[in-house]
Amino acid sequence: MKRLIRSRGGQCAVVFALLALLSFPLLAASTSPAAAPTPRAADPKQKTSAWLILKQKADLSRASTIQDWNARGRFVVEQLQATARTSQAGLRGELNLQGVSHRPIWIINAIRVDADATTLKELARRPEVDRIVPDVPFHIPKPRPGVAPGPGFTDWNIERIRAPEAWGAFGSRGEGITVGSIDSGAQFDHPALARQYRGRRADGTVDHNYNWFDPSNVCGSPSQVPCDNNGHGTHTMGTIVGDDGEPGPHQIGVAPGARWVTAKGCEEQSCSVEALLASAQWMLAPTDLSGGNPRPDLRPQLVNNSWSGGPTDPFFRDVVQAWIASGIFPVFAIGNDGSACGSAGIPGAYPESYSVGAFDTNEAIAGFSGRGPSAFGGITKPDITAPGVSVLSSVPGGDYAFFDGTSMAAPHVAGTVALMLSAAPALVGDVAGTRALLDASAVDREDLTCAGTAEDNNAWGEGTLDAFAAVQLSPRGPTGVLTGVVTDASGSPLAGARVEVTGSFGRSTVTDDTGRYSLVLPVGTYRVTFSRFGSETVAVDGVVVSDGGTTVQDIVLPSVPSYTVTGRVTDSDGAPIPGATVTVLDTPLSTLVTGTDGRYVYDGVPVGEYDVRVEAGGCFEPVTRRLVVAGPTTLDFTLPSRSDAYGYFCRLQRPRYIEATTVLPLSGDDATVEVALPFSILFYGRPYTRAFVSTNGLVSFQESAAQYLNTPVPNAAAPNAAIYALWDDLFVDASASVRVLEQGTAPNRRFIIEWRDVAFVDDPSLRVSFEIILHENGNVLLQYRGLDAGGLERGGSATVGIENEAGTVALQFSSETPSLRDERAILFDLPPYGVVLGTVTDANDGLPLVGARVRALVGERVVRETTSAEDGRCVLQLPLGTYTLQVSAPNYLTATGPVTLTYDRQATLRNWALRTARAEVAPAMLEFIVPQGQRRTRTLTLSNTGSVALDWELFESGGGRVGVTSLHGQARNLKADPNSRSLRGLQGVAALPGWTATLAGDVLKSWPATGLELPWGVGFTGNVWLSDPIAGINHEFTEDGGATGRTWPVPWTEGWPADMAYDAGRGLMCQLAVGGDNGIHCWNPATGLEEDAIAGTFPWTSISQRGLAYRPDDDTFYVGGWNEGIIYHVKGLSHPDRGAVIGQCSPPDGRISGLAWNASFGVLWVATQSPTDTLYEVNPETCNVLGSLAHPEPDFSGGGLELDAAGNLWMVSLNSGRAYLVESGVPTFEDVPWLSAQPTSGRLGMRRSQNITVTIDTTGLEPGVYLATLYVRGNSGRRPVVPVPVSLIVPAYQQAVNAGGSRHVDTLGDPWAQDQQYVTGGWGYLSGSDGILTDAPIAGTVEDPLYQSARRGFVEYRFDNMPSGVYAVDLRFAEIEGLSRLQRLADVVVENSLLLPAHDIANEVGQSTADDHAFLLPVTDGQLVLRLIPRQGFNMPLINAVRLTQRPDR
């Protein structure tokens, strides 16, 4: 194989010069504190995973009556499968028709689906579906490092439960029993577990079929060999069956004679629901490695489960019931959620589960051990307690460690059950009988803190586990003793010889120092096999054991000759690998370490066949080979290099440690600092120009990373895009430092990040130094100095490796394994590669396209893919070769083209403009006021301004009558402070609720606003800004709630900082001041310094406001607050008369706390503060409500408001101090009875338009407010769904009058009645006036007939029989007699309220021009009177039209 030669010249320079040229803003370097990168906002249409739980359940009641183990297992599986098959058929057919990805599970009769919210809601309505459960993972607790109890207590836990006494007295060590485990996997060849693995054959070979299951393919694809990438499963399995000899030095298991199988239900620290259910299903009927040929007869007799969740989720209860029906005993950890009553986790909290709590070496209940009562019927939980503190057991790498947790306690019970079933086969399948014996044999412990009795309480359950008593109480039957002495040919006793008994009952043991063995066996005839390393194997048949008798069987084992075994360990290039470990498995031979020449020598290996395993750290795959010794033997090994899915590999090299010089401002515990990199580095195909350095021995290029609990990688949880030099819980005190240094010249620079003399939190006396060296060519080098032999310093509790930005790909060198050495550095590198760089834009608007998928293909195979960033730019790092580039995005035409990369570090530029349709609808919203029993029509114009044809469909949503609270006359405490932070004091307990919600908004994110006394104002820059009005400080957070470290004071306000709005064009955050000048102050988010402001004397500054929104298309603001209940539209910073009022309106609910502008739809969102804290979507011109949304945590909690990039709403809860991101309305398409439109679908060519007729019919509708939405859904890339809000007001009363004229229907279809004289009980004018007409055209209107007639004189109109309520009074005037200004003056009075004093039509608008005025007035006495009173000396007044409309929305 050719070695990879790196170019050190100009070719490398091309790549990184182009990277610098592109200047990716997403990753821009900064010398000032910088914001964390912007995670992409949640897409409201994004598919999510959920479980459809079906109603029909299998009848398993007959299972317990079936005596045959195999038949019983088949019956349960067949019943479950048949029920699922019949009840799921229709639903699965529908899912297939809709193209919904799904996976059925038969053990609980459920189907996992990947679908959007609309589809999930539709599925929930199906009759066969009982409920929908979100796909939320469970967890195995991260093992808590335990502390050795002291000399003589290594296996204290095994002694404490009296397991050795049970072995000796009853001869039972679990033989004949198979234990199952659902956990993180297990190291099948661990010295303490290898012999007991059911897949291990007598000749030492292994068969993983029916013994290993990995549903998520974590250990390979397909997953053929057991692994444990966490360590938890290996530890729990060791406690059940572990023993590295007969006995070995690590006798860690309760039932070392039992066999084990395992299913990897936990991918990492978390356990997906799908993996857990698949694993539970596999336990009922294990399969081969392909997942086929299920064998219920091979199911284990019990299953240990050291994972939990809850405490109230019933999801897995059907699993436990199915296991019990099949005869499987279910053991569960109770969970580590602490000492609070009711903290028992599920599934352990289920009545059917046998749950286990934990106690320590002093027999005190562990503080972390979950307590009852259970949420299921209030029953006592846990059922029993076992050792769970400082438990020594096996961990991956052939090592051992002390852990704490109820995860460690549960295996003690599993092992004890194995002893019981082995000693008393009659108990197999008798779950109730077995748990009764466990309960009866437990040692009572009193603790009534969480209720219960001295004998059975919610801390200890039935008491502490006693394995000896449990086996003693088991129905064991007649037994006898088999004993004897094993010697060599000279008569000397042989210690450690294995004695294996087979027959009707299986047992095994080893001889003691005198060569003696002894076994208690059921009566019967057996074959006894004797073996020992270095001796011949001898078998004796026909050994009889009688009731109460003692059978003596001595044996002589002659020795066999030994020979030298040598070999050499090399890499795939033939180079020697020094420091590799060579182990002859399952033998007492010491593990050897290869020298500098890669060689090893065993001086004496007895004749026989063995497995030899060679490991050389995280850069090489371990290799196991068969060794046959019949004379001097040579056995060489070639270790393949490890690489991850991206292509990174690592190699070990001699270190050249470099001391960095510049000390970073980084110290203490769990701290990070952002560092600007001197050059851009490509890491997993993404360019980065900044890094977050953590005290905990890692660097993340993506986010602040202070996590101290390390996990194996890859792991989707943060941190990601990271280099883990020594990820552990470290502390940088006064004697330590973190330093940086830049060396070299472009393009061969390197950047050193050094942790010097940092301490371990677990042991501050230990110090370690190490460094990460970032090379400009993309290589990463890890070097270490001063590592002592101790486990901590050499990585014994750390993670070492690299990981991509999503946490899906990583090259882990080691995890919690002492693998590091001073004398070897770790280099992470890639094979020769090139880079394709470019920008993806929308061909219609030329703007960047975010999230476009860029793929490189060879034929149909995808070699690598990436997505475009916020600015449309992308980088694709590829191995050398020729590819087809494919660029795609939803609803865009896919672009393709070839590219060839021929030399290392080659850079190629490619830009793509993707074509798509573009749907535009005018007007953007429809508003109707239609009395009962009438129809109206409007026209929508749909245009395609895109670059491909538009295929569109029309859908309806909503339409229900809205619960409207009239706030007219809402009481206010006039003495309350207008600058108050809450309306509670202004309206108190008399406050009315807001409108009911018409939109379904799910909470997408929620997190505590850490560090704020009271979160109030909200701003969004990609990160979330929150104001603290008490401290007078603005705080910045990532979208996931991580504090970025930016906190800026607000010296520009004499009061407090309220809502915010981001002006992206200027890069300024603008914010309202409450108190002082009540103005808008704009500051730089990077510095906190004020750079501009709008302040002065304006209508909106006369009293403090609360809400602020910025509208970039015309550089204006919307400002409003609860003091006035008015939303002002004011001019922004670019206008010469900044702050001037353009317009204003009053929303129905004026308790305004926050505002947010949605530019895509031209609507304004309004947050309020009230008992319901309702949020409203309003027309910014009229303030009419288009939709309403519920606050996630109401009761005077409303504050500021802002939209994220996807149009979802960031808001706060003043009560709990949390920030929320709420989906701004998820439509459920449904027919709206009063709304129709034609046509409902079609195809529009480029630059074509068509009309859609919208009809409203109020027949049968009660008076009120109705809100609906029309959705135009098409193949438009930018906006695939265009909503058109439709607001319908059905008034209880409306009367429109064409004063002085005849009946008229206006262009909107609204009727105006012919003028008439008043009659009591009706409406009309009183005497004293006359009608006049003109045929002159009227300016400023299209409704000329309404203005060409008028009533003139002492005008008075009366309207009787009007329902009480708020009315819109619409008055229309026009000067149609040719009079000039100051010739006709009159006062317009309605309900004794002077609405228009000295009204002069000509002065306002001139002659023959429409002059319209509208007012809202209450009517409480059933009558409204309108008067026009002339001013003395002026011509008589006139009026052209009058309309009165009852407004149920006011």
Automatic annotation (TrEMBL):
Membrane-crossing residue ranges in chain numbering: none
Record domain Peptidase S8/S53: where: 174-447
UniProt entry keywords in alphabetical sequence: Hydrolase, Protease, Serine protease, Signal
Signal peptide segment: 1-28
Domain Malectin: 1295-1428
Coiled coil: none
Keyword Plastid included in the entry's annotation: no
Listed Pfam families: BACON_2 (PF19190), CarboxypepD_reg (PF13620), Malectin (PF11721), Peptidase_S8 (PF00082)
Stored Gene3D superfamilies: Carboxypeptidase-like, regulatory domain (2.60.40.1120), Galactose-binding lectin (2.60.120.430), Peptidase S8/S53 domain (3.40.50.200)
The name this protein goes by in its record: S8 family serine peptidase
Organism: Pyxidicoccus fallax
